[in-house]
Design goal:
The chain has eight helices and nine strands. It is of the alpha/beta class and about 240 residues long. The protein has two domains: about 100 residues, no CATH class; about 70 residues, no CATH class. The strands form three sheets. The chain has a four-stranded antiparallel beta sheet with strand order 3-6-7-8, with no helix packed on it. It has a three-stranded mixed beta sheet with strand order 4-5-9, with no helix packed on it. A two-stranded parallel ribbon has the order 1-2. The longest helix is centred in the last third of the chain and has 23 residues.
Length: about 240
């Protein structure tokens, strides 16, 4: 692992001029440091953006990508050829200088750093959670409970009370709705049960002539109203 990471002032990394807490935790686990670009320094910003510009002009033109994984696969194949070319600025081929670079790097830690997006929500009645612009279904049986949602570059998972209640492939489309068929079936069954319960209660409810429901009181309420106690044990305890 390199000893330092040079980064532009992106909001997730250091938009305020200081390294964000998640980014600092990531760097700390890897035993490296993040160097933020100084404000209003085009030369430093150019150092960061130079690699992006190289990819935009040499790798991206004429290519199509089905997913982030497809992008990474194509990039890995292209880098084999790109790193074998002679680069004037380093007076050599990157593949020949890799061994020298590795000697100056620090080893990776035994534990992987935490990556991805995490949030805790109380699941609403629509039983969906939003990650970026996409909505992902959650098991409707945990509506109203706290759910821990984690989103990596490839997978979105949700856990409630130690149980996994959702697992989806990460979608990178805009405003997509990702629904697990099992969640849809459970929600349909719950709606049917709720409708049946409402119909049963409506059938057993009596109504006045003007249409409003007759309010039923528990019988002990009338006993208390008239001061009557039909429970002998209560009388004995009062004496």
């Amino acid at each position: 692992m390199t000893k330092s990471l040079v980064w532009d002032r992106e909001s997730a990394i250091g938009g305020t001029g200081k390294v964000s807490v998640p980014a600092a935790a990531f760097a700390g686990t890897l035993a490296t440091k993040i160097v933020l670009a100084p404000p209003r320094d085009p030369e430093f910003k150019g150092l960061v953006e130079r690699n992006n510009g190289f990819l935009e002009t040499s790798f991206l033109p004429g290519r199509r990508f089905a997913s982030p994984a497809d992008f990474n696969d194509q990039l890995a194949g292209w880098l084999v050829k790109a790193n074998a070319r002679t680069v004037r600025s380093i007076a050599g081929r990157p593949v020949d200088l890799l061994a020298t670079d590795l000697l100056s790097m620090v080893p990776l830690p035994p534990a992987d750093p935490q990556v991805g997006l995490t949030q805790r929500i109380r699941l609403g009645r629509d039983c969906y959670v939003r990650i970026d612009t996409c909505d992902y279904s959650i098991d409707p049986r945990v509506i109203g409970k706290l759910v821990d949602v984690t989103a990596s570059a490839t997978v979105v998972t949700a856990v409630c009370d130690g149980q996994t209640v959702a697992r989806h492939d990460r979608s990178w489309a805009k405003a997509a709705v990702v629904t697990d068929p099992a969640h849809a079936a459970t929600a349909k069954a719950m709606r049917a049960a709720l409708a049946e319960d409402r119909a049963r209660r409506a059938a057993t409810t009596r109504y006045h002539a003007d249409g409003h429901a007759v309010q039923l009181r528990a019988l002990p309420d009338y006993d208390a109203l008239f001061g009557v106690d039909f429970n002998p044990s209560t009388k004995a305890s009062n004496q």
